[in-house]
Q: What sequence folds into this?
């Protein structure tokens, strides 16, 4: 195929690439497809058009932290699940609480996590989250021992269908009753 | 609050039938509780929320005696976790003893020794709720399926990258195995000679017979390079790779690739 | 979503599932989606219809050994490849060592290389280096069998960003520290 010379062809290329990618593609990734012959603004416009084109179809084009991806509309998930009974296992409460602390309080050290949860952090918990590429080390805190500082990754946001941390449920929404000091 | 109670029912309700009523845990149920709760904060929070337990109503003496028994048991099970529970009961006892002391008038409300514990409990509770929320969010691989159609991988395979470091590392390995490094040093000069050896062989291969002086570009090459070139010719001759012929004294010297045949 | 009760819905489910599967799906796989409420023949018919529906689009539904899959039409492959230029795995140790020997000891024969490495040289190793245009034959050694003499090429120097072989690190750099005999 020669280089595309019209919008329709460019959109077709983008669609084919996104449908086969298996992961989000950033605007920069997609610009590479056209060897410098496309403006960023044009690309954004084409993304909007593609979104429109697929609005009534089985997949939707969504934007997450690391870019754009096609994903099945939510009404199909239960059918997709029937195909792979051995899907991603649910994480333990320890893992999820650790993840929540890192997500909402980042960057944090293991000590911070232990302080909040009141128990020692099992190294296995951190390993699970790192292997999933949901958290990583972003630096060290300058205190004795220089403990690692953990933060969530883009991949975590992608997997939860989020564009940024700001899209996480607000902490304030978790309304709690005060614990009374006097009875 | 409603969702919180549901959550508790789901998490704890099915795990075991006997729910704790206070921090006094029968030793035979200890293991179960340790599994069911994420730690002392979690257990305390549960007791406060579910049974309206007053932090101060906890029978401290009894509790302490019991926790000391646990330590023995813990040596076999999860000592780390037991330590967390012990620390917590120590903290509760400290709070209680401070509360029992006569309170100086000027001490303000915020200095209530329970305030720090309550702050921690509230923070932990918020995180617990956040974790539960994260857990039910749609997730790639669980509820979200990303398009991943197939494509023909046309092979425009780029050759592997090789860096100078890779090459040096390879050479180092060769030397290590061949145990050559104590005797053999290859320096700049020798490499230049070997490079010229290759160049001369290439030239002789294409041109056949070459007159000795033609191999020296006296006009443009520096002395060092001329010397190296000369050394290369000598080395080639020594290794029997080229043959040098001269019809008579002072006549031109010709070089050619050693074909093994007598001239 | 309740169980699908018409052909359109069933086709949508199949499309969403096939687009996100990441691997071919057999008819048996797909029958599982409908909890025994679909005949094999109906499914085959739906597959044919889906094929038709996509005939003019960017992907095509094809049948391969293990089942059905959507794949990008061939004209898009070259664009998709631009996204992930596949790098061949690293050269094997044998290739790298052979290259190193030719670079430092040229001109050498295969026999020389075997002598130094202590193992036979796989012809494939020489071929890889010749195909890369990093080594070539500069002559024959005049011994029985007239073995080829190999040397590195200009292209090799270019690729390693060297102006001449003299810029290769010298052996002195690797010299091991002497073990002191006296104390």
A:
């Amino acid at each position: 195929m020669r280089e595309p010379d019209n919008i329709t062809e460019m959109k077709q290329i983008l669609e084919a690439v996104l449908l086969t990618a298996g992961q989000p593609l950033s605007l920069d990734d997609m610009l590479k497809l056209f060897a410098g012959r496309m403006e960023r603004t044009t690309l954004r416009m084409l993304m909007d058009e593609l979104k429109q084109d697929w609005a009534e179809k089985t997949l939707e084009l969504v934007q997450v932290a690391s870019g754009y991806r096609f994903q099945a509309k939510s009404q199909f998930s239960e059918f997709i699940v029937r195909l792979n009974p051995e899907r991603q296992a649910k994480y333990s409460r320890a893992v999820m609480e650790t993840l929540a602390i890192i997500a909402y309080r980042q960057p944090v050290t293991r000590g911070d996590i232990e302080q909040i949860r009141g128990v020692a952090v099992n190294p296995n918990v951190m390993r699970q989250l790192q292997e999933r590429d949901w958290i990583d080390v972003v630096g060290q805190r300058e205190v004795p021992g220089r403990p690692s500082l953990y933060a969530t990754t883009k991949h975590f946001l992608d997997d939860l269908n989020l564009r940024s941390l700001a899209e996480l449920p607000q902490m304030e929404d978790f309304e709690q009753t005060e614990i009374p000091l006097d009875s | 609050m409603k969702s919180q109670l549901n959550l508790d029912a789901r998490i704890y309700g099915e795990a075991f039938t006997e729910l704790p009523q206070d921090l006094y845990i029968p030793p035979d149920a200890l293991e179960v509780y340790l599994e069911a709760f994420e730690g002392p904060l979690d257990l305390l929070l549960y007791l406060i929320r579910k049974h309206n337990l007053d932090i101060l109503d906890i029978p401290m003496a009894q509790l302490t005696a019991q926790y000391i028994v646990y330590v023995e048991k813990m040596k076999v099970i999860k000592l780390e976790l037991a330590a967390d529970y012990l620390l917590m009961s120590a903290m509760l006892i400290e709070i209680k003893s401070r509360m029992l002391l006569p309170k100086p008038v000027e001490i303000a409300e915020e200095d209530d020794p329970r305030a720090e514990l309550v702050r921690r409990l509230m923070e932990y509770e918020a995180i617990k709720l956040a974790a539960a929320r994260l857990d039910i969010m749609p997730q790639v691989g669980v509820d979200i399926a990303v398009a991943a159609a197939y494509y023909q991988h046309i092979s425009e395979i780029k050759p592997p990258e090789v860096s100078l470091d890779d090459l040096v590392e390879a050479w180092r390995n060769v030397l290590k195995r061949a145990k050559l490094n104590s005797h053999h040093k290859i320096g700049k000069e020798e490499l230049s000679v070997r490079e010229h050896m290759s160049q001369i062989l290439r030239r002789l291969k294409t041109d056949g017979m070459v007159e000795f002086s033609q191999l020296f570009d006296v006009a443009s090459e520096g002395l060092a390079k001329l010397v190296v070139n000369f050394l290369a010719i000598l080395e080639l001759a020594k290794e029997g790779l080229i043959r040098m012929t001269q019809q008579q004294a002072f006549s031109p010297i010709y070089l050619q690739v050693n074909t093994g045949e007598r001239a």
About this structure: The CA atoms of residues 8 and 46 of chain B lie 8 Å apart.
